Amino acid sequence: LVGSDEGLQQKLAEAILREEKSFKISIHLATSLPLPSERDQLRPRIDLIVFVIDVKNKYSLKNVEASLAHVDASFFLGKVCFLVTGVGRVNYCSVEMNAIWKLGEVYSSPVLFCELELEGIRVATAQRLLRMLRICAGHVPGVSALTFASLMRNYADD
Amino acid sequence: SEKMQRRRSSKTPKQPLQVLQKNQTDLSAWRKEGKTDSAKSVWNHQSPKDQKNDNEQDSLEQALSFFEKGKSIQDRVSLKKSSALQKHLAAVETVALQSGLPPEGFDVLLNVALSGKLADTVNTRILKSLVPASVIPEDAVVSAVSWLCVGKCSGNVQLLFLRWLITVFDFIDRKEQLHALYGFFFSFLQDEKMCPYVCHVLYLLTRKESVKPFRVRRLLDLQVKMGMQSHLQALLSLYKLFCPELVTINLPKKAKTYFKNAEGPWKAAINAIKRRKQENSPVSQALFLGTAPPQSRKRKWNSQLIIYASSVDRNNLEEDRQNNCGDLCSQSLPLERLQTFSQLLHNIHRLEFPSRMGSVLTNPLLLHYMNCVKDESIYLRLYYWMGQVLQEECTWCVAGNSEYEEEFKDFLETVYKTECFLQEGFSSCEEFLYKTLPLWDGFCCRSQILRLVSWIPLSSFSEMKSNLYDPLSQLFLTSSLYFKCSVLESLRELLQNWLNWHMVYLDSESDSQGHSSNTTLSGLVDAVAELIHFVGGISTVALQLEDNATFLLYFILNFYETVCDVYLKYNLPLLIMPPAGVFYPALLSMDSVNLNQLCYIMYRYRTNLVAAKQNELSKKKILQFKFSSRTYQEYNQYIIAMVGCLWTSSVFQKDIHPQGLRMDDELLKKTTVQEFKTSFNIVYHPAMMGYAVLFLQQAWPDDTTLNFSLIKGKTWNWYLEYLYAEGLKGLKLFIESSISRVSQAS
């Protein structure tokens, strides 16, 4: 999870870990990328990168934009997702919604909305992320991360 | 205390309107049940041990006396200099925030605040503390307006008064005199700063008789001077609805929000007081609701509506009844006088709707009226009110509302029930959904939102795609199994509503709520087809994600049960087969329920196709629509697979569908199934094997070896009868229609 609000990230991570699941999961929290290179060898495979953007905080968007530059191109084949929190204060948002939609388009990655400050929604969001993670880790036969991401972005029937 | 009793004596207690919780269609229940002296003012219900409250009442009385005696207040005395003023002002503010001001207090305070005698800071504080505990007497407001006309107070105070008036409009007990002051309000339009708020007030007050040519001209002149402002637009639109012949200019049909929120401290204070009252005195709660059971939760919006509804003074009501002039009067009939259905019928031409349209939602008589009389003005007013409430009370878009989620859920339920009653969706609801679905987390008010989705009216594919399909599919793909099933159910109802709408409305020329009358038959067919394709697509993915769960397949096949009969039941020239990603999982499902559903659906497809073919052949002229040969081909491929799978054990050889089950003999041998050429039919099908076992046990109870090959010839027929008796009606219909039996020697 990459995002500037550490408190919220922590809560979200805890919510994810509390969920029942049949696989082992480890969550790395970071405020920005790149990750420090010292621990590169010890790091497990990363299946999903979630960029957390707080709609009330212009800095969080800038932070994410800067971090995106450090992500390897292969991740954008379905292993990146943007999580926008602060929807509950839509009247106070200082970040343009258009900028966020554009970000999703440019990086071909899904954009999820939530309000992490509310517990019920936090739990529901944790569940959604877990389901995405299952697919990105290849646990669902017949559905790859790339297929899934393209379905999420633009549902086209064929 | 005694002083308060004296003040109160001039007003008679108001009767609350009893709103029932039952279904709207139960009309007989909607009658007033006798008069009870029930609506006592809140003061009577204070618990005797509340000494603090009593003290506050005393200090409020003193404050009111102080303000009443104008002489004791010197002109423009500043707050700092007069400690008495400070003390009394503080007393008023305390009581106002604690429990609201009694009706008697408004007259005094409004006079003081608007007469300009005191400094602006004092006036502002007074106005901000004008929180009503129950009702606001009309006289107080009228005299306040007269002060406004004199113009003794500053511009800011005037604006604040208008904002207050808009916010507490529904608490004013009567409105007759206010209606009479319409002209005075109208004259305030020339003040640029006041104009938006005055427009809002006029919007609430306007009735058909208020629309006069000179007023229309004035508004148009203002529009020329100030440009097209949304508040002017609102008023002009309302005028146009009442008297379309007077307003000939073109106005946009639907605008987003006409009036910006007249934000102020009153609303929050009113809500806080209501909640406090709920906690403290369940008795008064029951009284407000009539004879509601004590455990019913008082709804924030609903309770407001109950108070709003009584806009007629009870005294006049009595007199009128005695004079028997109710029916003969040419005046309009306020809704409180409506007690029976026959009254509705007699007075249907002169019903006056309440100022706050929301009370219509729970009123079965008014809903009937709305349904029969195509009065655009009602829909428009409801549109603005509902749009505003939905936007403001939405619990995930406004985080502060999360504690009131139950109430919001109830409100959404009521909207849904009303839509079911009227058999159409509200456009404000539709717009709300389009705005919030992309931001929705799929958790808050889930079932209510999904039900409301089913009433979205039909529009072009590109609109539906960006507004509904895209956000919904994002949620769908990342959600739980149950959410997916709920969405499918909701989309099935959406389809059904569109089809029903087609049956009812497309033949008649009229359309309601301004739905695009450009929807031709082909437009409808396209939109329905796109919806079906959308569902087919997400179902395929969902089955992969959920590992072909039976529960999910049930909902998917349920959807196709509606789809397969579109031609025969709804007269729409459309036939769409389920995609292979749905058909094959169903065919190879482990559960007989799904298999049975599939059989029924294929049977219905056959019936529809046969009927279509017959129509084609019998009609001399060329039909506009003809099912393409591709449709027949698809059907045939599926049928071959099904028959092969269930009957002739030949599916692996015969299936010609590109995504089908065709398999080489070599591969089949690897399964080590002994006689694969005869081992794949309804005896050996995994969904049916259970039945086969039970059948064998009943037919040969002594034989413990389960010899499935015994089921052939005559026994085969018994087996079929056994299956039909077990409730597999779909299977029966399919076999009897699609499989012609050649009599076999046993």
UniProtKB/TrEMBL annotation, chain A:
Among the Pfam families in the record, one is CENP-M
* Keyword Nucleus tagged: yes
Per UniProt, the keywords (alphabetical) are: Centromere, Chromosome, Nucleus
In terms of superkingdom, the source organism counts as Eukaryota
Protein's cellular compartments = Chromosome, Centromere; Nucleus
Q: Does the keyword Nucleus apply?
A: yes
One GO cellular component term, please give it: nucleus
UniProt name for this protein: Centromere protein M
Source organism of this protein record: Apaloderma vittatum (Bar-tailed trogon)
Its lineage reads: Eukaryota, Metazoa, Chordata, Craniata, Vertebrata
From TrEMBL, chain B:
Query: Quick check: keyword Nucleus in the entry?
Result: yes
Q: Annotated region Disordered: where?
A: 1-58
- Regions of compositional bias (Basic residues) in chain numbering: 1-11
Keywords for this entry?
Centromere, Chromosome, Nucleus
Q: Name one Pfam family in it.
A: CENP-I
Predominant localisation class: nucleus
UniProt GO cellular component terms: inner kinetochore; nucleus
Give start-end positions of Basic and acidic residues composition bias.
29-38
Signal peptide from the UniProt entry: none
Q: Which domain of life is it from?
A: Eukaryota
Could you tell me where this protein is found in the cell? Chromosome, Centromere; Nucleus
Q: InterPro entries attached here? A: CENP-I (IPR012485)
Q: Which PANTHER family match?
A: CENTROMERE PROTEIN I (PTHR48208:SF2)
Q: Where is the composition biased (Polar residues)?
A: 12-27
Q: Which family does it belong to?
A: Belongs to the CENP-I/CTF3 family.
Please state what the protein is called: Centromere protein I
GO term, biological process aspect, one: mitotic sister chromatid segregation
